[in-house]
Design a protein that fits this description.
By secondary structure, the protein is of the alpha+beta class. It has one domain: NADH Oxidase (3-Layer(aba) Sandwich), CATH 3.40.109.10. It is built from 8 helices and 4 strands. Strands 1-2-4-3 form a 4-stranded antiparallel beta sheet, sandwiched between helices. The longest helix has 20 residues. The radius of gyration is 18 Å and the shape is globular.
Length: 217
């Protein structure tokens, strides 16, 4: 697969089949994704993988923990200005439209949001932590690592969904995976085979026109 094809094929999948993912495939993807660039070659990502039996145990563990807790960082700025506010609003409306959930159906939207906590049915997941002593440049390194992993997953016939949702369940995840206190949870990622019959997987989020955000000087 050409890189550009992987870029255009990748999307955030929110309905997975229960088809297992082999541990060796995940190991290979992680090794290859670690070729992602990082400033000074710090390689600040710290990854914890759950798959198969450990995913089963995690699904049993999570309901025993607090459902949500205060996040250790702001997922979005407290006051979004344009065009960012509209971008976020639009993709939310488009996602719920694929499910036939209108804006006034708050219960339906909350039910869909809660599916984050079940990894949208995915059989495998990873959690990306970073040393608390790292700064914004290293957080950008995490993004490059995660994007590289997601593109490589497409090449292996897998789908993913990066989930900052897990940043508000950091205590439960830290306890389960055994991450030390000096590591901060950035996000989780659901991994598996996409359900081809799920309407939500048809969502293709829009991108702003090039001239709205790029200038050739």
């Amino acid at each position: 697969m050409h890189v550009v094809d992987a870029v255009h094929t990748r999307s955030s999948i929110r309905a997975f089949l229960d088809t297992p993912v082999d541990d060796q495939v995940l190991r290979d993807l992680l090794v290859d994704a670690a070729r992602a660039p990082s400033g000074g070659n710090l390689q600040p990502w710290r990854i914890y993988v759950v798959n198969g039996e450990s995913m089963h145990r995690l699904r049993e563990f999570l309901p025993t923990q607090p459902p949500l807790e205060a996040g250790e960082y702001d997922i979005y700025p407290k006051e979004l200005v344009e065009p960012y506010r509209t971008n976020r609003f639009t993709v939310g409306e488009q996602m719920y439209a694929t499910l036939g959930i209108p804006r006034e159906d708050k219960a339906g939207r909350l039910t869909q949001f809660a599916r984050n906590g079940d990894f949208f049915g995915a059989p495998a997941a990873l959690f990306c932590f970073v040393d608390r002593r790292m700064g914004p440049p290293q957080w950008s390194d995490l993004g490059m690592f995660l994007q590289t992993f997601m593109l490589l997953a497409v090449d292996r016939g897998l789908a993913t969904c990066a989930q900052e949702y897990w940043s508000v369940r950091h205590g439960a995840i830290r306890s389960f995976v055994g991450a030390p206190e000096e590591e901060m949870l950035f996000c989780g990622m659901s991994i598996g085979h996409p359900d081809p019959d799920a309407p939500i997987n048809t969502l293709r989020s829009e991108r702003m026109p090039l001239d709205d955000w790029a200038r050739f000087v």
